[in-house]
Amino acid sequence: MTYDRSLLAVLSVFCAALWIGLLTPPFQSPDEFDHVERAYLLSKGQFLLSTDEGRASGGNVDTGLLDYMAQFKSLPHHPEVKVTSAQLNSAKDIDWSGKRAYETLPGTGYYFPLIYLPQALALACGEFLGQSVDASYKLARLFTLGAGSLILLAAFRIMVPSALVIALLFLPMTLFQAASASIDFISTAMVLLIIALYLDIMKRSTRPSIQRMLGLSALIFLLAGCRLHMAPLVLLPLTFGVRFRSIPAISLFMVLCIAIISWYGFALSITKDMRVDLGATTTQILEYYVLNPWQFADTLWATLSDGQRTLYYLHTFLGILGWLDVPFSPQTYTTLFLIVLLILMFAILQGRIDDGLSSFALISSAFGGFFIVFFSLLVTWTPHPASAILGVQGRYFLLPILFLACLFQSRGTIDGRARKYRMAENVLLILLLSFSLFATSEALEARYYFSSNI
């Protein structure tokens, strides 16, 4: 029964995201233009970004893809602009040109590029088979959603997810990102696979094999290499070393630390980012807050104590879609929040994992992730000196929150009371998915297709 719910959850996410993708015009996830361009560069064998003199980092992108993107660049941040059938038909006729022009995409320069493999394979297949750019882009969406769903399925074969984990996957923000060609959904699925493998190893009495630890470490590096706030996951192999007295596990912990630091140091050194004038270099700002940690504490407190800002974090966690230009009504946010809160209550009633070391690792990784979100945006996105941290969105907290959600585990044995809890959870999950789909469909149709004066 528990596995059936897990399988249904993955199928539900896949089908819901597929539907949302049909309603969403291309490139309406934040920075999706850059993500697709980075995937294209990988499909052509360009592992790292290049830098033209006097320009930000980027690469040479097919002009057909650039023409296709241009059809939709009027949409972001302009809710009054709608999609027309003529615009969609015109975009469908654009083919790969075989000619390339330099395009800047510095924001993706810090991401370890293998995370873009599904999108890159799709774009390469589409171009090789002579498909239009539109068909290739839609194939990239499908490959990304399919890869993420397969990773989720693998995770749920190892770990039975709690209703709280499933609820987080059913949120409008999660489903919307799953429908895009960005790397959010694959990152989400990878987090759950890493946690599943970790908890499976920790519950065994025998020392894990080198192969399993290497595989888990490779996944951690791949994820942390594109999601810096996942770097605290290096704690996981360290706990193997503590529990199993394993020197190889401790060695992997040290190798992971060096590898992640080296990657970001290298990426920072070769990436020229001219998007924001910070008033100082990132290195100078980093040095300032390291030497003056109380200044960071003051800035963080000023950020979190701002009621409007924290409400914005909640809304962007539940779902402000598009380029942050497709909000829901206050009633919708309240309903979503209350349903998730009820599911959390049932999760608490059913208990959590009783392994203290595993709990410590997951909780530490979660709060380390929260810290890195704020600190990284302070030194890379917020003009210096700062009175508050800018650029933080609630969706950035999904991955750390999943660590905490995985503390609540479905029990293998179900008594009468637990069976009632399970039934209540299932009803709430169905309600959440249905409500998310309805609210998302309505919001997307109003944003992209219907004029406000109709």
From TrEMBL:
<feature type="transmembrane region" description="Helical">
    <location>
        <begin position="142"/>
        <end position="171"/>
    </location>
</feature>
<feature type="transmembrane region" description="Helical">
    <location>
        <begin position="183"/>
        <end position="201"/>
    </location>
</feature>
<dbReference type="Pfam" id="PF09913">
    <property type="entry name" value="DUF2142"/>
</dbReference>
<feature type="transmembrane region" description="Helical">
    <location>
        <begin position="332"/>
        <end position="349"/>
    </location>
</feature>
<keyword id="KW-0812">Transmembrane</keyword>
<protein>
    <submittedName>
        <fullName>Putative membrane protein</fullName>
    </submittedName>
</protein>
<dbReference type="InterPro" id="IPR018674">
    <property type="entry name" value="DUF2142_membrane"/>
</dbReference>
<feature type="transmembrane region" description="Helical">
    <location>
        <begin position="388"/>
        <end position="408"/>
    </location>
</feature>
<keyword id="KW-1133">Transmembrane helix</keyword>
<keyword id="KW-0472">Membrane</keyword>
<feature type="transmembrane region" description="Helical">
    <location>
        <begin position="428"/>
        <end position="450"/>
    </location>
</feature>
<feature type="transmembrane region" description="Helical">
    <location>
        <begin position="213"/>
        <end position="235"/>
    </location>
</feature>
<feature type="transmembrane region" description="Helical">
    <location>
        <begin position="310"/>
        <end position="326"/>
    </location>
</feature>
<feature type="transmembrane region" description="Helical">
    <location>
        <begin position="361"/>
        <end position="382"/>
    </location>
</feature>
<feature type="transmembrane region" description="Helical">
    <location>
        <begin position="110"/>
        <end position="130"/>
    </location>
</feature>
<feature type="transmembrane region" description="Helical">
    <location>
        <begin position="247"/>
        <end position="266"/>
    </location>
</feature>
